[in-house]
Design goal:
Radius of gyration: 32 Å
Strand order of the largest sheet: 5-4-1-6-7
Structural class: alpha/beta
Distance between the termini: 86 Å
Oligomer: single chain
Number of helices: 12
Helix content: 40-55%
Length: 308
């Protein structure tokens, strides 16, 4: 009888050893990675790659400025020659001038576009203002040589840009002096002072470029306009695609002589005609529709889908 308790204890220990060990707590399921926001700025990648790397871009720039140089000699020889629709009356005795835009006309600012690829932000005035303050844009091929040639012939160069004077209310620092220094650093003519820089200036009514061209026309015969945007040559009220096309047709004889158009596929007023100021999927859809993609399909593609 005395062996029974010992036997029972032994059996209990054996049963405990045979029981499965308790399972450790399950590891938490890893959280699914957050979906990254789509970078719509990359829609412009091909245009920027072309502008920054292609031999064709350089060839077109140099071709444009070679045409400008040849046309300048004709313009100087003809006292009745003007390139500005704002110029009228007897301007034959006025000293000669050339008006050029700045961005993508004489200075390459495509590195700002690369910044937008990296941060995913659309154009922003504050971002752009900080970019201008760095004064690191480089010359467009052919621009400095042409303008130096013009200056050697006694032609004054005016820089008419939609860069801005200081706007304290909007938090925008002055862009005139940094632009002057940027151009002067590369030896562009008429950059000793800001007198030849006509930038956007709301208090003076200088929002669009026509009033600024008219200002130059008061004192100089405008031989040539050089720019990458149709509005560097003529302002168009309530512009649409038809009005813009008509403006080109009306001045076909001036292209390559009075008007020198510089290629820029990265941005311009043509964008607003197509997509307004829409960005993201809405802007992408508008551009798709502009090239003939039907609305419903464009909507699907703009959100990352496909037609089929």
């Amino acid at each position: 009888m005395t062996r029974l308790p010992a036997l029972a204890l032994t059996l209990a220990l054996l049963a405990a050893c045979a029981a499965p060990a308790p399972r450790p707590p399950a590891a938490p399921t890893p959280a699914a990675p957050a979906a990254s926001a789509e970078n719509f700025e990359l829609d412009n990648l091909n245009a920027v790659v072309w502008a920054r790397t292609s031999a064709e871009a350089e060839a077109l720039h140099r071709q444009s400025y070679a045409m400008a140089k040849r046309a300048l000699d004709m313009a100087l020889a003809d006292p009745g020659w003007t390139a500005a629709t704002e110029q009228s009356g007897d301007f034959s005795r006025l000293p000669p001038a050339v008006i050029v835009d700045v961005d993508e006309t004489v200075l390459d600012t495509s590195d700002y576009m690369v910044e937008r690829f990296r941060n995913g932000r659309p154009f922003d005035k504050a971002d752009w203002n900080r970019y201008v303050q760095r004064e690191n844009a480089t010359p467009i091929p052919g621009a400095r040589d042409f303008l130096s040639y013009a200056a050697s012939k006694g032609v004054t160069v005016f820089y008419v840009s939609n860069r801005s004077v200081a706007d304290a209310a909007a938090g925008i620092a002055d862009e005139v002096e940094p632009s002057r220094r940027n151009l002067a650093k590369f030896g562009f003519p008429n950059t000793d002072s800001t007198q030849t820089f006509l930038f956007r200036d709301k208090p003076r009514g200088w929002q669009e470029k026509s009033p600024r061209r008219a200002e130059v026309a008061k004192t100089h015969r405008i031989l040539m306009l050089v720019g990458d945007n149709l509005y560097d040559f003529v302002d168009i009220e309530n512009a649409d695609r038809d009005k813009r096309a008509l403006a080109v047709q009306k001045h076909l004889a001036w292209l390559g002589t009075r008007w020198i158009v510089i290629a820029n596929p990265m941005y311009g007023s043509w964008e607003q005609v197509v997509a307004g100021y829409d960005t993201g999927a809405a802007g992408r859809k508008a551009r798709l529709e502009a090239v003939g993609v039907p609305g419903a399909v464009a909507d699907r593609i703009a959100d990352g889908g496909f037609e089929r």
